[in-house]
């Protein structure tokens, strides 16, 4: 309903005193008040009717009209009952603020105006609601038939006369009506916002979140609209309908992801229990990963935040989207998360992950996100070694956000990670098996003595002090180690072998 449709009703006898240019403005409701500052009760588009009971002097008109202007009302209707006519100071204040002002004669009650306007407003709202409901039913049916957001958003937005874009928390474009604005800048504004909706990009865009599972901004999508400067939130009319369309797509995707995570959990259990190549191959295929591909393992941990338990999984899934559309992500027993992804040719995986982590940083608050990345590994048989590399790289990650690749580190752990599991087990058993068996039979503590001896660099006195034994007792134990294993701890090569075997046993 437009303001002129209210003013042009003959039986109301309303006289427009100022603001003729506002006759075509829309009216959302009629609000009656005699508060000196009604701004807290205004949502925009109202016709405010007042009996002027708030006016004690000319200066009060400026206060009242300024409050109405801040609330973006469409017009003010003032009654004649108190003063017999409209005070000139009220007319001047309305003219200054660009608000249409009309006079309500004494013989016309505010109830008559409300009764004349409301039926038209209700009829228009009912018609609009029917249109929205019909469109929503069509969208639900289309999505059930397989249509996706990227197909549906442009025509629905065009029907509503809106431009909008959907982004992930890293700024990755998901759908939109035309060439998208820079997603990275908008994503940073979305993640850092203290409340939503909010405007960004120098006020050009209005941002609103679309939560998924888990409900955290780091795991949410957001929709960017071309901002309406007349709307308090910046959101244009019809934005809510498009947001509900995006929410429907997100809900469907969350169901798909829930199934994919169960399959990834199965592959994670196979890796944890030392499953053979055949089982790993089947597990990779179930996750959509080609078994003979070049893989990269990624271990991540998000700490320092009170977050849902699966937030780290969602964050790593989003970060890995910068590498490939297909990844398997599963929790690890130590609160970390494992991700397996196929590395496309020519893609610098650590660099892509660093860019994704940098994009997510504004949403971390006091949290810390550490990621370890393995070197490329060809075929599923190499996955256990790649996971070990990623774990070691993760332990080396320091700082609020860090992405560390195993190729940047030098350590015997990386070398051991590449040795097949059966070879590692045979090496450990050959060196330490006799000592473990002797300890179990005689409660001799030879394995611990050997470890302490190597940790002390072969120093007899320091090792004896740490073990709280006499040096002669220590010499006897070491001689038993040498006799049982056939090795000489005076030789550097044998010390290295024992050191590696002890590391493999951890």
TrEMBL record:
All residue ranges annotated as the CdaR GGDEF-like domain in the record: 278-395
Residue ranges constituting the Purine catabolism PurC-like domain according to the UniProt record: 5-118
Record-linked Pfam families: GGDEF_2, HTH_30, PucR
InterPro entries xrefs: CdaR-like_regulators (IPR051448), CdaR_GGDEF (IPR041522), PucR_C-HTH_dom (IPR025736), PucR_C-HTH_sf (IPR042070), PucR_dom (IPR012914)
Residue ranges constituting the PucR C-terminal helix-turn-helix domain according to the UniProt record: 446-504
PANTHER family linked: CARBOHYDRATE DIACID REGULATOR (PTHR33744), CONSERVED PROTEIN (PTHR33744:SF17)
Family per record: Belongs to the CdaR family.
Protein name (Swiss-Prot/TrEMBL): PucR family transcriptional regulator ligand-binding domain-containing protein
């Amino acid at each position: 309903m437009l303001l002129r449709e209210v003013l042009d009703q003959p039986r109301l006898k309303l006289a427009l005193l100022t603001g003729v240019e506002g006759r075509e403005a829309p009216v959302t409701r009629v609000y009656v008040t005699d508060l000196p500052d009604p701004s807290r009760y205004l949502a925009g588009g109202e016709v405010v009717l007042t009996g002027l009971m708030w006016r004690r002097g000319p200066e009060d008109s400026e206060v009242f009209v300024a409050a109405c202007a801040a609330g973006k009302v469409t017009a003010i209707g003032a009654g004649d009952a108190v003063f017999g006519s409209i005070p000139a100071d009220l007319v001047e204040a309305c003219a200054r603020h660009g608000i249409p002002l009309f006079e309500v004669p004494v013989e016309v009650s505010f109830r008559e105006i409300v009764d004349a306007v409301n039926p038209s407003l209700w009829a228009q709202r009912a018609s609009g609601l029917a249109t929205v409901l019909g469109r929503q039913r069509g969208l639900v049916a289309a999505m059930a038939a397989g249509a996706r957001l990227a197909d549906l958003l442009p025509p629905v937005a065009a029907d509503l006369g809106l431009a909008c874009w959907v982004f992930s928390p890293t700024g990755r474009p998901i759908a939109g009506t035309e060439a998208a604005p820079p997603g990275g800048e908008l994503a940073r504004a979305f993640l850092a916002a203290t409340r939503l909706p909010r405007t960004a990009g120098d006020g050009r865009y209005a941002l609103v979140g679309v939560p998924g599972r888990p409900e955290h901004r780091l795991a949410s999508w957001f929709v960017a609209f071309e901002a309406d400067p007349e709307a308090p939130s910046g959101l244009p009319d019809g934005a809510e309908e498009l947001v509900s369309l995006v929410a429907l797509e997100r809900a469907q995707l969350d169901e798909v992801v829930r199934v994919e995570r169960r399959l990834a959990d199965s592959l994670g259990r196979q890796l944890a229990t030392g499953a053979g190549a055949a089982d790993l191959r089947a597990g990779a295929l179930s996750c959509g990963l080609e078994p003979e591909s070049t893989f990269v393992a990624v271990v991540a941990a998000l700490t320092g935040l009170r977050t849902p338990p699966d937030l780290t999984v969602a964050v790593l899934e989003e970060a890995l989207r910068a590498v490939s559309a297909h990844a398997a992500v599963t929790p690890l027993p130590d609160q970390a998360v494992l991700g397996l992804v196929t590395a496309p040719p020519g893609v610098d995986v650590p660099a892509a992950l660093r860019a994704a982590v940098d994009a997510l940083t504004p949403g971390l608050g006091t949290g810390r996100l550490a990621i370890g990345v393995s070197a490329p590994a060809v075929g599923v048989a190499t996955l256990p070694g790649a996971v070990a590399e990623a774990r070691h790289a993760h332990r080396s990650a320091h700082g609020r956000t860090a992405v560390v690749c195993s190729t940047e580190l030098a350590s015997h752990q990386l070398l051991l990670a590449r040795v097949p599991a059966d070879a590692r087990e045979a090496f450990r058993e050959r060196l330490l098996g006799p000592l473990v068996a002797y300890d179990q039979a005689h409660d001799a503590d030879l394995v611990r003595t050997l470890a302490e001896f190597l940790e002390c660099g072969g120093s007899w006195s320091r090792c004896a002090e740490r073990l709280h034994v006499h040096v002669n007792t220590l010499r006897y134990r070491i001689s038993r180690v040498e006799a049982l294993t056939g090795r000489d701890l005076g030789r550097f090569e044998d010390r290295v072998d024992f050191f590696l075997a002890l590391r493999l046993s951890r």
